[in-house]
Amino acid sequence: MEQNTSPYNLICEKALEFMRQNTDAKIPEVARACKVSESGLYGIFKIVYNETPNYFRQKILFEKAKQLLVTTNIPIEEISQMLNFSSASYFRKILKKYSGKTPKEIRKAAQLQ
Questions:
Q1: pLDDT tens digits, 53-112
Q2: At 50, is the secondary structure helix, strand, or coil?
Q3: How many whole angstroms separate alpha carbon 96 and alpha carbon 93?
């Protein structure tokens, strides 16, 4: 119970909430919002989650992308741009990393359900 209220956990919670609210924010902006340095934020996330803030940022973007893929007919390239991915191919790579499926496979699976 004590661990959940540690200053590090509170910073991580604030960072994750900021990332959910500001999906276009880069990690330096997240760090500023949490009033810590970028390297400090990476260190805190490593301690609390043994992952980087960027891992969670990508995961949040993946969830938003997945939601758009299954609830709209917006083209994959457009969703990639909406979520500020550097390219549609990088967008596909992230989707594959977190779901094991391509954008088309995600859409098709949602239509079958």
A1: 999 999 999 999 999 999 999 999 999 999 988 899 999 998 998 899 999 999 988 888
A2: coil
A3: 5
Q: Which residue pairs from 87-96 have beta carbons closer than 8 angstroms and sit at least 24 positions apart in sequence?
A: 91/65, 94/58, 94/61, 94/62, 94/65, 95/62, 95/65, 95/66
pTM of the predicted model over 0.85: no
List CB contacts of 64: < 8 A, sequence separation 6 or more.
Answer: 23, 83
Q: Identify residue 87 by its one-letter amino acid code.
A: S
What Å distances lie between residue 28 and 64, 98, 113, CA to CA? 21, 23, 40
Instruction: Please choose, from the candidates 63, 62, 92, 66, the residue with its C-alpha nearest in 3D space to the C-alpha of residue 77.
Output: 92
Q: How many helices (H) and strands (E) does the chain have?
A: 7, 0
